[in-house]
Amino acid sequence: HYLTSRMSLKPVSKEALMARTARHPSIPQGRGSASAFGVRPAPRPGALVAAVGYCRVSTTEQVEEGVGLDAQEAKLRAYAVAKDLELVEVIRDEGLSGKDLKRPGVERLIAVCRARGVGAVIVMKLDRLTRRTRDPLSLVEDVFQTHEVTLHSLHETVDTSSASGRFFLRIMGALAEMERELIGERTRTALAFKRE
Question: What is the DSSP annotation of the chain?
Answer without folding.
Answer: -EEEEE---S---HHHHHHHHHH-SS--B----GGGT-SPPPPPTTPPEEEEEEEEE-HHHHHHH---HHHHHHHHHHHHHHTTEEEEEEEEEES---SSS-SHHHHHHHHHHHTT--SEEEESSHHHH-SSTHHHHHHIIIIITTTT-EEEETTTTEETTSHHHHHHHHHHHHHHHHHHHHHHHHHHHHHHHHH-
